[in-house]
Amino acid sequence: MEHSHSHDHGHSHSVQINKSNQNVFLIGIGLNLAFVVAELVAGLIYNSMALLTDAGHNLSDVASLVISMVAFWMAKKKSSAVYTYGYKKTTVLAALLNAVVLLVAIGILGYEAGTRLARPEPVQGDVIAWVAGLGIVVNSVSAFLFFRQKQELNSKAAYLHLLADALVSLGVVVAGIIISRTHLYWIDPAIGLAIMVVILISTWGLLRDSFKMTIDAVPVGIELEAIKKLIKKVPHVKHVHHVHVWPLSTTENALTAHVVIDEHLPFTRKLDVIAEIKHELEHNNIHHSTIEMAQEAH
Asked: What distance in Å separates the CA atoms of residue 174 and residue 178, rounded to the nearest whole number?
């Protein structure tokens, strides 16, 4: 079977953090990292599982923000004769490592919280409330910074996540106040366990998605059959087969496909059809496409 190849490596629709967003991410990372240290120190000094687990929760936010920054930095590195797609895949490996480390931390903290729940120890509820109150301020300020940049996908995700964290901190404040008034010390490890459930749910999703990306599964949010139908809708496309879609990074996707185009069209018109296919794919979150023209079997 005779065939010809057309390759495209454009970036016009890829999701990347622009220069102005980079500063917002740096500020967000700095604020949240400082708060993680404050929660960790206070949790150890005042023996609070709620503060320690919330520190782990906020650390996951810092890791997520750092991963986005790594994606920005890696996207700027040029490809080479060995790494022909550059270093974009490292963002996927970083996400996978982040998920594994968080799961290990959850296991350790979960064991400690369970032990503490069985034998509650005295904690200072007012200290827990004040430190968690600081968390509300940090997360709210960070969320506001990202809200101003929310037209960008990574910033929007960070904004929503930090807003949710502010609500978690509010829950810890309420728990601290209740402990200081009632001396029901079991509330501290109970809140810690509740926060760990929140971390587990989000981390499991991160682990699942990053593992799928690592083995080049179809990216989340893309349906293979829908992509095939999209290509078939382009005028003069008769058939499409051997379609493969995989992630190049946490923000960019690639595709290869064989298409059969109306054989009565001139070659230059066939190239126009391929250009139209690529244009449609770019609008559907596929940034690199390789389309092979093939003759229909008779």
From this structure: 6
pLDDT of amino acid 225: 93
Name the fold adopted by 220-294. Alpha-Beta Plaits (3.30.70)
Residue 260 has pLDDT above 50, yes or no: yes
CA–CA separation, 86 vs 25, rounded Å? 23
Domain 19-214 has CATH 1.20.1510: yes
Could you tell me which residues come within 8 angstroms of residue 34 by beta carbon, excluding any fewer than 6 positions away?
A: 138
Task: Indicate if 220-294 has the same CATH topology as 19-214.
Answer: no
Rounded Cα–Cα distance for residues 189 and 115 (Å): 9
Cβ neighbours of residue 13 under 8 Å, at least 6 residues apart? 282, 283, 285, 287
Do residues 145 and 161 make contact, with C-beta atoms less than 8 angstroms apart?
A: no
Domains in the chain: boundaries? 19-214, 220-294
Token output for 240: 């499409």
What phi and psi values does residue 235 have, to the nearest 5 degrees? -55, 140
State the burial class of residue 157 (Cβ atoms within 10 Å of its Cβ: 0-12, 13-18, 19+).
Answer: middle
* Alpha-carbon gap, residue 283 to 93, rounded angstroms: 26
* Amino acid letter, 290: T
More confident residue, 286 or 171: 286
